[in-house]
Amino acid sequence: MDKSHGVDDHMASERRKTFVAREDLLKAISEIARENGKSLYETVNEIFETVISFQKSGIKMQDAMEACIKLKKFKESGYVLCLENLWNEINLLAYHACPAEVLESWRTSGMWLAKRHSTKNAQNPLESIQSELKSSIWNASEFVMREDGGSIYLELINPRLSKEHSNIMLAFFEGVISGLGFEVSEKESQIGGLRIVGRKV
């Protein structure tokens, strides 16, 4: 008896197994395939190849998707990518040349950020702002932003912040707090961090 023939039949049977998925997902993928001018077969295989590629790279599919969504939102919100040392040097040069103007520009940017989130997420702009800033402020060992009754509290700890950069970030957060309808009652900046408290106006 030729056992190899039975093995071949088993492998062929395995290959012929139907791939089962939720109907709504299949409809969505079919629509994606149609929009991209591809067959359902091509699209499904592209998805599998992408998942396998991420897995081999040590990246979870969910993490990759969230990162892509964040980058898209940052781009739509006016963010740009820049080398950290270049960004820091530009800010220092501007700050030393005209500190008052630089701080006012950052304060205005903070107010703009708060107004944008208040418009898009009127129910909970603070949570929306905190989510965006946690994703965009790198190298921070701690970032706290919370509201308690009629007060708002914010603290940022980043060992890489110079005194000048702490002052700049403080001005930015003053703008954020002001844009949310609070008045700054306490503020402090130093090398490596800052703290600010606001009261509801």
Task: Characterise the protein shown here.
The chain folds into two domains: 3-59, Arc Repressor Mutant (Orthogonal Bundle), CATH 1.10.1220; 84-200, 2-Layer Sandwich (Muramoyl-pentapeptide Carboxypeptidase, domain 2). With 201 residues, the chain is α+β, with helices and mostly antiparallel strands. Helix content is 62%, strand content 15%. The protein starts with a helix and ends with a strand. A four-stranded antiparallel β-sheet has the order 1-2-4-3, covered by helices on one side. The protein has helices spanning 3-15, 23-35, 40-56, 61-76, 84-97, 99-120, 125-136, 163-179; strands at residues 142-148, 151-157, 182-190, 193-200.
List its salient traits:
8 helices; Arc Repressor Mutant; 15% strand; Muramoyl-pentapeptide Carboxypeptidase, domain 2; single chain; 2 domains; 201 residues; alpha+beta; 4-stranded antiparallel beta sheet
Q: Could you describe the largest sheet, including whether it forms a barrel?
A: 4 strands, antiparallel
| CATH topology category name of the largest domain | Muramoyl-pentapeptide Carboxypeptidase, domain 2
Structural class call reads: alpha+beta
Spatial sequence of strands, sheet with the most strands:
1-2-4-3
Helix content: 55-70%
What's the helix count?
Answer: 8
How many structural domains are formed by the residues?
Answer: 2
The arrangement of helices and strands along the chain is HHHHHHHEEHEE
